[in-house]
Fold each of these.
Amino acid sequence: MKEDSLFKEDAVFLLDNRADDTATDILKMIGNKMTELGYAKESFKEALLEREAKYPTGLRIEPYSVAIPHTDPGHIYNPCICVVKLKEGVEFHEMVNTQALVRVNFIFCIALPEGEKQTNVLQHVMGIAGNREMMEALNKAENPEEIYRIVCEC
Amino acid sequence: MASNYRILAVCGAGLATSTHVAKTLQSGLEKKGVSCQIRTCSVAESSGVIFQYKPQVILATVSVNSIEDPHGAKVYSGVPLLTGIGSQKLFDDVVAYLETLED
């Protein structure tokens, strides 16, 4: 995952968000950014919101819970895993157990166009989310550059 | 446990969470000496696939309620196989369930 890393320096965010922000607020921000940066089509944001509402992606995992929002490949131009670290955790609905809420500190928004190998990407992201050492390093990171460097090390 | 069981993993489609979950389960079961076929599909396709494929076990990365009619298959959450939390228990549960099917 080194040379052809799906992590992009411009798609890493450290959000100085408010404690009362909702998952929708954050997903809108991600949607806008991904379109602005040329990774996703205009339709991406709405698709992301719609999909998260139908099939939530919050995952309760140690040490920090994460969400892995994504859409159908048709809304994507260029492959990218957008990484968002939230200053204040935001509540997402849990995957499968959709009535339950989980406070999420990190978001990995996986944006892949048609034909990209999706399974390995997911495995890679879950490998990071489940890696305590790496997640603690991400939690300490103070700027997007540092976050980018850490995720690329994996 | 010589039987070749059929496992279906269902996701919302797009990210192939089901493929990841299915492969993880398959290798977990193989370590326990249980061989199985795996198949994946989206929620939208699930009714038709369940009808044809007749899985004994369904793993879902979407709400279990969104699978309309499992046709007698036992439905489990695939989340432990994504997060790794509780995955051993899930392997044990699935094996124990499959064992009850043999007569």
Amino acid sequence: MTDRIRIQEQDFDLAEEYQLLRQTDSAVGAVVTFSGLVRDFEVSAEGAGSVMNSIDSLSLQHYPGMTESLLEKIVEQANQRWNLIATTVIHRVGDLAPKDQIVLVGVASQHRADAFEAAQFLMDYLKTQATFWKSVKRNGEQQWIESKASDQQAAARWDGSDDK
Amino acid sequence: MANLETGLAMINVLFFGRLGDFAKQVPSTIEASTPAEIRDLLAADFPELVRELNQPQVLVSVNKMIVGWDQPLFDGCEVAFLPPVTGG
């Protein structure tokens, strides 16, 4: 298994990462990549409903050292659950603007089901377990993003079911 | 250095995410024997921070491993207070 985990300020090249996954091994029959981007709005809970606020920029903080080891554990779990040939996780930190790439998850496997499911699992766990914190700037004011119950629910669907 | 009289250890403390906003004046090292004690020591001077620390979703780590609030601490430990994560 070839695992690449990177936390970096600089942007990444999706095509380049895809080629690396593709070229890992001639047994690769499927590559799934997911890239997460900075939206120009953030939905926040307010009372019983929710409001959509536009944002100027986004900033990502993380806990150096801990984040890397948590991501390694998440990738290790994916390798245990699915038959994977190569995995790439790249997460950017620092200041980002709308349309910027934030995160890349790429999975190469022999068959597509493993790659599809593992990519979703990696994103769900990354969002709920890795030590990253987002804040946004709106009209010059910084505001921390609240964690979302829907992300917790998405991660919980992988609990206890070894559905292989 | 540990305080030989009290047996307490000098702990490096870190606050992430929104907790950092309330912890700007907190010293970077605190003498304490558990994470819970660090929280209790901050109560008088930083009531807003401690209110945030008392949120049930806040986790604590020692040397980058998630632990309980009563984890014994040793000299030079790094204790971090972690609000719910929001990456991805």
